[in-house]
Structure formats: structure tokens, C-alpha cells
Amino acid sequence: MVGPFTPWDVELANNKESFFFAGHYFGLVAPQLYRLCFPLRAVRWLERALLHWRGDQQSLLFDGCASHLSAPWAPRLVSELQAVVRRGRPMVFIVCVREPVSQHLSWWRLEHDSMAFAQHLELGDHYHGPPTRRGYPPATFEDALTLARSTDVGRLWADADSLAADSGSLLRRLPDWALPFPNGQLSAFERFGRYAESVQRWFDFFERDAFVFVNLDELAANPEAVLDRIASRCAAVLGIEPPRRSHHATTLSAGSAVAVEAPVLNASPDLPPALEPHAECLKRLGAHYRPLNEALYRLVGNDLGWHDDPRYPWYTPEA
User: Fold this and answer.
1) Which pTM was predicted?
2) H or E stretch including 295?
3) Domains assigned to the chain
4) Which terminal Cβ of the chain has fewer Cβ within 10 Å, N or C?
């Protein structure tokens, strides 16, 4: 597997996600320029020649960028990519979803860690984004939820839906107010949690058979089964031979096979108590997302089990 180049030197992102269609290349999102994130054809030919790869052993290109699922302009741009740059060659989309309340908590903590680091570097207020942002950054988790559901932020997201409509220009770029999400990432919780709407936006441009849905809980509990499912779908869509289980899929310890564990790469520490949300807030948030989660279950044809999982007590009804 060959991952993309990223302009951000972050250990979690290097050789994994490009951030290209999220606008992190100075806002440039023209599909014709996306190929610059990957090795030249001559480099890949040299790899095959030096390593004596057969035709069925050539490496696959991938881009693992979570921002692309929710960015409203991304599906249209990627459909252009397939039509113009890849000339109709198939692509596989692996959609990893996480229970939305715990996802919000993780994102809230991650963003505050980043802001604390920026303050340590004495960057002033520049890391808050352009001055046109409204009410940003929110002071509390509850404020972030209120901001994400506000009329102003909703209007910005509606405007963002049309940003990819003008095609053809190599200089096509997203405006600053939209990056990386309209009014900033802590204004995006409501859109991040509406998985069914984001997935449907992608379904409007691509066949459903091109998608594999992965529940993060399932990936953590049984990574080998999930990887086998992904590999089988890739083989079916791309028209290649299903890959065989490689020697590194299991490790040997004292003569017995041990299953591979999915690593936790970017778990954020808990915040000071003043910044952590109250249980009542999480309970209300769980009630808000229950019907939205059920819409996702119906769309993908699979109950992901979040509402009955004891790890997510905000879905448990009061006694």
C-alpha cells in the first residue's frame, strides 16, 4: 500500500492522509492536482523492476483522511477525480464510523490539546482561524454543541455545499471561511455526527458496492476480520486477486499464534474538570443522536449496536 504525501509533519498523518480535499494545500482542491500527492509513475515502475514484482503484486494507492467524509464539497471533487484523472478506473471507499458522542468527546479533547500546544508556542490568536469566525473557539463543550447547531453556522454549511460546483480550473481553491470546516472544527460537531447525511452525499456520486463500512469498535475488537472484509471488497471492486494472509498477520509467542491488536494512535488525555462535559449534557446528546444513528443503521443495513453498548451509558434510559 502506498500512502500520500502530506504537507503537515504529523506522525499520525505521515504517509497516511493527504488532507488534499480538506483544503490543506493552501485551499487548492482541483482534482487534476491531487496526483501530486503520490509517487511518480517512473518511481512505481522502478519499484516493480527492482523488487521483481509481478503484475498482480503492484502496490495499491490509498488516502486515509477522516475529513473527507464530512466535507460537503469532497464527493463531487472525488467524482471528478475518477472521471478526469483516473479515467473511470474504480475506487474503493472505506468508511470508518465511531459512536458520535464519544467521537465528539475525543475531538473536543484533541482540539484543546492542539490549542494548548499553540499557546505554548506563543502563537497568539492566529491558530483560532480567520477573524470572520463567529463565537470561536467555544468556551465549553455545551457551547460547541450550541454553536454547531446555530443558524449562522448552518448557513455557512449550506453555502459550502456549492463550493465544488465550478469545475475545470487548476487554481480552484476553497475560501478561508470554509477551512478546514465552516467556522472551524469545533463548530462541526452536528455535521460530524450526522453520518447518514454524509454517507448519502457520497452515495449520490458513487455506487454503493464501492463502499465498505467499518465500526471502530469492531475494528478494535477484531482487526483481522475487518481487514479481511476490506481486502475482499477491494479485490471485488478493483478486479484483482484477493490477497492471501501475509506472514505478518500474526506474531508467534512461545510457539502459539497471537492475534494482531489495533493500536490506539492518538488518544487524547482528559481535560481539566471545567472543560469536561457534564453527564446530563451527554445524556441529552445521546437522545439527540439516537434517531440519527438509526437512520445510519437503515442506510447501511447494519445495526452497529451503539445504543445497547455499556461503554455508551448516555443511551441507557433512566430507571
Assistant:
1) 0.84
2) helix 279-300
3) 20-315 (3.40.50)
4) C
